Every structure is written in C-alpha cells, then in structure tokens.
Amino acid sequence: MSDNKNKKSKKSVGSGRRQRSAARLAAVQALYELAVTNRPISLVLQDFSKSGAKAELDEELVPAEGAFLNDVVRGVDARRPDIDKMLLACLDGKPLSRLDLVMRSILRAGAYELIARGDVDAPVVITEYVGIAHAFFSGGEPAIVNGVLDKLAQTARDGDQAEGDLAAEDLDVEAPDPDLEQENYDEVEKTLP
C-alpha cells in the first residue's frame, strides 16, 4: 500500500492529552503563519478551525483541542512583548530575531503555557515543546528549547507568584543555566545570519 493510502486510512482519534499535543503543534504552526503572513489572528484561527486542525501522533490523526489552541495563540499574541522579554533574559541577551521563526514560535508558545497556564505541569510543557522542536529540527535546537523553557519554568513557577499571573518585570533572571548545553547552542548560533 502506498504512503498516501496509509495516511488516508489512519483513524482520527484522540484523548484529552493527545488532543492538547495536537493543539500545541497547531499553535506553533498558527504563530508561524501569523508572523509570515501578517493576517489577522481571527482569520488564522478560523482557518485552523475550518480545516479541523489535526496532528499525526503515533501514526494516528488526532484532532486538536480547539479551545486550548485558541488560548495559546491568542495568549502569545496578547502577551508577546512580555514573553519576548522573558525569553531574551533566558537566552542570555541573545536576540530572538537571530533564531529561526519556527524556533521563536515554539519558544513563545511554551513560554506562554509556563507563565499563564498554571494548570499544566512545567515538565509536561517542556517535554511537549521539545518534541515539537524534534519534529522540525535535527540539530541542537531541541536542546535549546529544553534549556530555555526549563530556565523559564524554574523562574516563573518558583517563589511567591501566583501561577498563571506573572509579568516580565517579575522575573529575576541571572546568568544562563550551565545545563543549557552551551555546545549545542554555539553550534546552532554558527548557522544564524
């Protein structure tokens, strides 16, 4: 049987967890589309809703959880200046503009979940977005996603702040975490313009 026939015959299934995984991937794709096309957010989300956003997970088509997809995309859009400021601190001041647009979309979506979705455990958020990075990149980028989101999670989820209610000025980010796998970061940095 050809690959096209296999893909068409795959069932569309999903549990809550898997539907959220599909929503995360769709959110990264929507954020990328927003950045590339400059289309209004409502039209981009409407397109994803009409097409029935799905992701292939373990060889099964899983529908994205629409409300979660909308929350992540709209949340990143609404809080992007704060999110970018936090990510910049976690990247040791290296500008986000030097990262690939897909990487920026992954980091922004993950950062939004860490600062605004206290109902989702930080390790789950990090693992999910590292997995998305693996889907797009074969180099050191997934390690960067892991390191940046881990550092942000440690800062954003610790202390006296109420989960889900953190602003950029609340972060007290110090020197980069040595576990950020500097070698991988340097390798990726060499490829940036």
Helix content: 55-70%
Strand order of the largest sheet: 1-2
Largest sheet: 2 strands, antiparallel
Q: What is the SS-derived class?
A: mainly alpha
Round the mean pLDDT to the nearest integer and report it: 77
Q: What is the rounded distance between the termini?
A: 43 Å
**What is the H/E string?**
HHHEEHHHHH
Radius of gyration: 17 Å
Strand content: under 5%
- What form results from the Cα inertia axes? globular
Q: How many individual helices?
A: 8
Number of strands: 2
Unreliable stretches: 1-14, 159-193
How would you portray this structure in words?
This protein has a two-stranded antiparallel ribbon. With 193 residues, the protein is mostly helical. α5 (101-116) runs antiparallel to α6. 37% of the residues are buried. The chain is globular, with a radius of gyration of 17 Å. It has helices at residues 3-9, 16-37, 41-51, 66-90, 101-116, 122-136, 141-157, 182-190, and strands at residues 54-57, 60-63. β1 (54-57) and β2 form a beta hairpin. The termini are far apart. It has eight helices and two strands, in the order αααββααααα. Mean pLDDT is 77; it is low at 1-14 and 159-193.
